[in-house]
Amino acid sequence: MAGELILIIDDNADVCTLLGERVLPSYGYRTLTAQDGRSGLWQIRTRRPDLILLDLRLPDMTGLDVLHVLASEGYDIPVILVTAYGSELIAAQALRLGVRDYIIKPFTLDEIVDSIQRALAEQRLRGERNRLSELLNFCAEALRLLGKAATEFAASADGAPRLCTLLDLAIEATQARAARLWAQAPAPEGLLLWAQREETEPHAYLVRKAEALPPPVAQAWISATVQQWSHNEDPPETGLALPVSLGGQTIGILEMRFAEAAGPRMELALLVLRCLTGWIALALEPFLQGWPGKQVGP
């Protein structure tokens, strides 16, 4: 997969020009160049390259000095060290500092391109393994909390405590930042904000007040379908609005907000929340008995 950003740190302007302007762009890579260690570190901190091609000998510091700084600042960027000195001691030091490959000058263009492609492929594989491991951990914790939800639902009293407990569990099981439960009310109110827990609050609590409906919540109520929205601004946020149904009728909407962009974990969160909405519907039912059907409001 081309398109990765490669930083070349080398005091030889000809090397920077050859690799940065001709060779690597021809393979689809984007490039940055720096001719000393300090400017290279500045590029790393501000541009976050996907791979670093690092010369051992630089005017202001050695390549090993740069590696020590990267390690101390917690960067996990693949580095290929390039040197004219074939020292086993230097190679051993570099490998201990996380260098992915070690190339001795003079090198062929095929050697450098092959090394870059291998290092980036390994990094992508590592990222995929980490992502899958994170998803598995998320699933395991969500299943544990769903079991806890079943136990606490059976043990808790009807009414507000049960609803608030379920809202707290929805946040814990999906690692959401906030949750709100909207439920139908007698005409003319339509939907009321029934319970909520915002990001800074330790527990959910009952609200039962009229409030302007967010458009996705209104759409989920009207269509009885899940609505999802997101933005990738800083910070990113994703929202879900899930119908809460009982006996084939939508009686409320569970609104969840997450401090992350949409992705595979959001699909798992949706599965967990679908399970919880059934219990939420049962907890909500005693409040709504005898009330008329759908209206959108206020």
What is the element layout, followed by pairings?
Layout: E1 5-9, H1 13-26, E2 30-34, H2 37-47, E3 51-55, H3 63-72, E4 79-83, H4 88-96, E5 101-104, H5 109-155, H6 160-174, E6 178-184, E7 191-197, E8 205-209, H7 215-223, E9 227-231, E10 237-246, E11 249-258, H8 264-288
Parallel strand pairs: 1-2, 1-3, 3-4, 4-5
Antiparallel strand pairs: 6-7, 6-11, 7-8, 9-10, 10-11
Explain the overall architecture.
With 298 residues, the chain is an alpha/beta fold. Helices cover 47% and strands 23% of the residues. The protein has eight helices and eleven strands. A six-stranded antiparallel beta sheet has the order 8-7-6-11-10-9.
